[in-house]
Write a structure and sequence with these properties.
By secondary structure, the protein is of the alpha+beta class. It contains eleven helices and seven strands. A hairpin with a 5-residue loop joins strand 4 and strand 5. InterPro entries: DinB/YfiT-like, Maleyloyr_isom, MDMPI_C-term_domain, MDMPI_metal-binding.
Length: about 280
């Protein structure tokens, strides 16, 4: 356990997802490693490579010196190019090589987290190539728990093995994704001032939140109900997750989303729903 109990829920969520991923991929055949996921251009192997690579960087391992092929169509900017390095260097690794490296990385990283002495608000490097160069340790661990669980779900969908949809990592993911809603509603969808939008999510992880746009056009989110929302969006948790993480576009899941009230505003919100890079 870390020295700071406030960090432990994120460590526990990360651990549960990493162990679940290891259990998922250990028995895979070589063909199953190549199955496509909803992450553009990434197979099951690529998603696992991404996770291994980020955790290795957090362990202080040097980034690979590697030149990407020019024909990787989904690499379109410096952010995706940065993220692709750790993936492409492992593209020809066998299943046993992948599972062995994953297991060893989890052991090393678990030991590092168990011995963590830094405080939650201590600044640490941000290993992803977007956002600030430094983040708090608490933020770093929160995002690792979020990212790992989201990719666990990517792998489960690709392999047809659903599970852990309401685990500890799911609750972390819910909070991270909800934090992006005010920008989606107020800025991206350009909801009018003094507008309320209700998001009603059902399924294994149920919640209802209200996004309010104040007189200055600034958005906020809370758990209080709104008696007269401009629009109410109702959808299940898996659909919310896939839309908010940019795994699918609205037209692919439109039948799973109910829009009540201002149809134009509701559609604008759903078309800008993705909050992950």
């Amino acid at each position: 356990m870390t020295d700071h109990p406030s960090l432990q829920p994120y460590v526990d969520a990360w651990t549960q997802s990493m162990e679940a991923i290891s259990e998922l991929v250990t028995p895979l055949t070589e063909g199953e490693w190549n199955r496509p996921t909803e992450c553009p251009g990434w197979s099951v192997r690529d998603v696992v490579s991404h996770l291994i690579g980020l955790e290795c960087e957090l362990l202080g391992d040097p980034r690979p010196i590697h030149t990407l092929p020019r024909d990787i169509y989904h690499v379109r900017d410096e952010v995706s190019r940065h993220m692709e390095i750790q993936v492409d260097v492992r593209r020809h690794h066998t299943g046993p090589e992948m599972t062995s490296e994953l297991e060893y990385t989890v052991i090393r990283r678990s030991r590092q987290l168990r011995d963590e002495k830094r405080a939650p608000d201590d600044e640490v490097p941000n290993v992803v190539p977007f956002g600030p160069k430094k983040v708090t340790l608490e933020r770093q661990l929160m995002i690792r728990a979020f990212d790992t669980w989201v990719h666990e779900q990517d792998l489960r969908r690709a392999l047809g093995k659903p599970g852990n949809i309401d685990s500890a990592g799911a609750h972390v993911a819910r909070d991270v994704l909800l934090a992006g809603l005010p920008k989606v509603v107020a800025k991206d969808a350009e909801a009018p001032a003094n507008t309320a939008v209700v998001i009603d999510v059902g399924g294994p992880l149920e919640f209802m939140r209200t996004v309010r746009v104040d007189a200055d056009g600034k958005g906020s989110v809370d758990g209080s109900p709104s008696l007269g929302p401009a629009v109410t969006l109702s959808l299940d948790w898996d659909t919310y997750l896939r839309l908010a993480c940019g795994r699918v576009r609205l037209d692919a899941v439109a039948e799973r989303v109910k829009v009540e009230g201002d149809q134009k505003l509701g559609t604008a919100i759903l078309e800008h729903f993705a909050v992950t890079p």
